[in-house]
Amino acid sequence: MVLTQSLKHGSILHDFLCALPKCEHHIHIEGTLDPELLFTLAERNSVQLPLDDPAFESSTALKARYSVFENLDDFLHYYFIGFSVLLTEADFEALTYAYLERAHAQNVHHLEVFFDPQVHMERGISYSTVMSGLSAAKARAAAELPDLSVMFIPCLVRHLPIPSALNMLAEVVAAGHFEDGTVAGFGMSSTEKNMHPTMFTSVYDSAREAGVRNLTAHFGEEGPAEYVSSAITHLGVGRIDHGRRAAEDPALLDHLAKNSIMLTLCPISNVALRGIAEIEQLPIREFLERGVRFSLNSDDPAYFGGHVLDCYCAVQDAFNLSVGEWETIAKGAIDGSWCSSERKQQLSLKVDEAVRRQRMMIPM
Ligand code: HPA
Ligand code: ZN
User: Fold this and answer.
1) How far is the C-alpha of 28 from the C-alpha of 47, rounded, in Å?
2) Ligand in closest contact with the CA of 158
3) What is the pLDDT of residues 243-270, one digit of tens each?
4) Which residues contact 176 (CB under 8 A, 6 or more apart)?
5) What DSSP element (H or E) covers 240?
6) What residue spans of 186-241 are helical by DSSP H?
7) What is the pLDDT of residue 5?
8) What is the mean pLDDT of the chain?
């Protein structure tokens, strides 16, 4: 990956970042569908890709188109076309397992994975088909990928009507999947412009009434800091996905720090979708200095060309962080996870060990 080769300061810490036990909380499983697999599945499942867009002439052309996204909505157009090739439980299982394996190879030890059941349901693929595929991949990972904890988070999508979101939520509740841990919480994604959080209070109220405790939402990716504060106030979320624009409001930063509300930052995604021109523009130092907890995540790696380790290396390249600062980031990501306190303790000891080894090698 080019990013790791272009490290300005960070190559000395590259091995450390690779070994550092990582948590990933912001990865859309449908965003791991790379162009080659998209074409393979389209052929296998006899799905006609758009004929009127030259990007779909070949996987190479599609990859080239992915490198020039103009903004979030431009990306989402292609992202949702990708959904059309996923039809069977086996498709979802294969896609999910491939990602779990890849993340595991980068020393990710805890994963919280988004998926968009509402969009699949609207195109005639049942919630149970999707969820069974994801769960089968998790079961296989439990047998084959040591010490990886995996959770799933269904997201409502903002571009579809509220009744469709309520319908999806009702289906997950009826399946008993919040209660039995098949899914770990509830989130919200898709287009953000003109999507004020208060438009979605009925869905989040319903989730809370159904006993869902872990709530999150994508805000502050393109939208203003006010969307972030409003999501906290009106939707009752305890986590914000992206949230980079929260830095525009110092009082909000204090609130995030005081209430341990984690931001799941996605540095490579932000550059790919032109929210920022370069990673140096992410407010990483402000977040660290003000005690705002955050994790680093790949978002949609098949579309943005960077996996989780690339995100860590790119941040190191941009900010030249110390081992101690990485320890703070890694511990914050553990504390902000939705796993048990016992699991957090295990993960924390792993981070201690990686830091100890690094300090033994290069005291700092
Ligand atoms: N933002 C909003 N919706 C999304 C994203 C994102 O980064 N990725 C997949 N759906
Ligand atoms: Zn996202």
Assistant:
1) 22
2) 1
3) 999 999 999 999 999 999 999 999 999 9
4) 182
5) strand 239-242
6) 201-209, 225-230
7) 43
8) 96
Sign of the Cα torsion 121, 132, 339, 263 reads: negative
Cα 38 from Cα 252, distance rounded (Å): 40
Residue 37 is encoded by which pair of tokens? 């697999």
| 177-181 contacts at long range (C-beta below 8 A, 24 or more positions apart) | 177/131, 178/210, 178/211, 178/212, 179/211, 181/151
Q: What is the CA radius of gyration of the chain?
A: 19
> Which stretches within 235-322 are classed as H helix?
250-258, 267-272, 284-290, 301-304, 308-319
Helix/strand/coil for 105: helix
Counting every residue written for the chain, the total comes to 364
Distance CA 114, CA 189 (A): 9
Q: Whose CA is nearest to atom 10 of ligand 1?
A: 190
Q: How remote is the CA of residue 78 from the centroid of ligand 2, in Å?
A: 14
Distance in Å, CA 135 to ligand 2 centroid: 21
Strand-pairing partners, residue 189, are 157
304's tokens: 């943005």
- Spacing of C-alpha 92 from chain mean position: 17
Judged against a pLDDT cut of 60, whether residue 17 lies above it is answered with: yes
156 forms beta bridges with: 188
Which class for 224: exposed (0-12), middle (13-18), buried (19 or more C-beta within 10 A)?
middle
Alpha carbon distances (Å) from 153 to 29, 186, 189, 329: 10, 5, 11, 22
Q: Could you tell me the two tokens for 225?
A: 């800091």
Q: Is the pLDDT of residue 11 over 90?
A: no
Ligand located closest to 29 CA? 1
Decide: residue 257, CB within 10 A, 0-12 exposed, 13-18 middle, 19+ buried: middle
